[in-house]
Amino acid sequence: MHGEPSDSRRNNDIDRPEHDFPDDSRTTRTHAGESIEDTRDWPGIILFGVGIALLALTLTAAGYGFAGWAAIGGIACALCLGVGAVLVIAEHQRVNNQERLGLSRPRGH
């Protein structure tokens, strides 16, 4: 217990300006938090989530023997997953190009 800093010294270390956002000293990725920071990513993420929900509904419809609904759900699921993935990848590429980051980054996402 003798080697631990006092509470007042520990709080002062946290309040120093070095600990402001972004924390580059402890961040291992080149652009951590990109999806939260850039709201243009959200439609793709939402579409991808809807696609996963549609997959569950499609499997349920197929399990109960509703072939027509399963086919409609499968098509809608494939569209949502595909368009969502394309939107997320396109936005990620746009951010990389805007920041002039290369395509092959050793510590990238």
Oligomer: single chain
- The helix/strand series, from N terminus to C terminus, equals HHHH
SS field, number of helical segments: 4
What is the global morphology?
elongated
How much helicity do the residues have? 55-70%
Q: What's the total count of β strands?
A: 0
Assign the structural class, choosing from mainly alpha, mainly beta, alpha/beta, alpha+beta, or little secondary structure: mainly alpha
Distance between the termini: 40 Å
Let me know the largest β-sheet. none
> Radius of gyration, Cα only, in angstroms?
22 Å
The fraction of residues assigned to DSSP E strands is under 5%
Q: Give unreliable regions as ranges.
A: none
- Give the mean pLDDT: 77
Quickly describe the structure:
Helix content is 61%, strand content 0%. The chain is an all-alpha fold and 109 residues long.
What does this protein structure show overall?
- There is one protein chain.
- With 109 residues, this protein is an all-alpha fold.
- It is 61% helix and 0% strand.
- The chain has 4 helices and no strands.
- The two termini are 40 Å apart.
